[in-house]
Each structure stands twice: as structure tokens, then as C-alpha cells.
Amino acid sequence: MTAMYAFTARFHSFDGTGAPPDIARHVQSTADPDDGLEHIYTESTPFGVYAVLFMNAPGAQAAESAAVGVCREALRRTELRGWNFTWQGPERELNAMASW
What we know:
By secondary structure, the protein is of the alpha+beta class.
């Protein structure tokens, strides 16, 4: 059985300049179906691009490992040269039946 987990990462350029790239597109296009990436939400700020990754996995550790993996893979793209990410965490299991 799997559950949905949400993770937050902040993508930022090393020098703090330049227009933010389309992080969501790069992360989604590098993810394999087995990674369990269901959705990514991004928001550009003066401090970088914040991304919330919604991962479907059998447990928190598997979800976090897959989320970090797709972020790292996206940074290998030429368009993201000079960018890095800071893992914000923590994981949270999402329950559609529970209220927040």
C-alpha cells in the first residue's frame, strides 16, 4: 500500500542572479513513473524557487529518496547549470480523509 507525501525544496542559483527557470517542467520531465512524483507546485521568490513535490510511495523514506533523486537529476540539465537546491523537508503523509 502506498501513501502520498509532500516535500519542500528551495532551488536557488549560486550567484543569486538570472531569471528563474521552469523548475516544475525540469523536475517532471526527469522523473520516471516508478519515482512516484504525482505533482509539483512551484513559486518564484526573491530567494529562489520553492517547490513542493507530492510523492506517492510505500513509506516516508522511499518517498524522500525519490524526491531528492528527481531534484538532483533535474540539476544535471544544461538549463539549470549554476543552480542548486536546499532540502527543506520534513515529509508529511497526506490523508485525503483527514482535515488539516
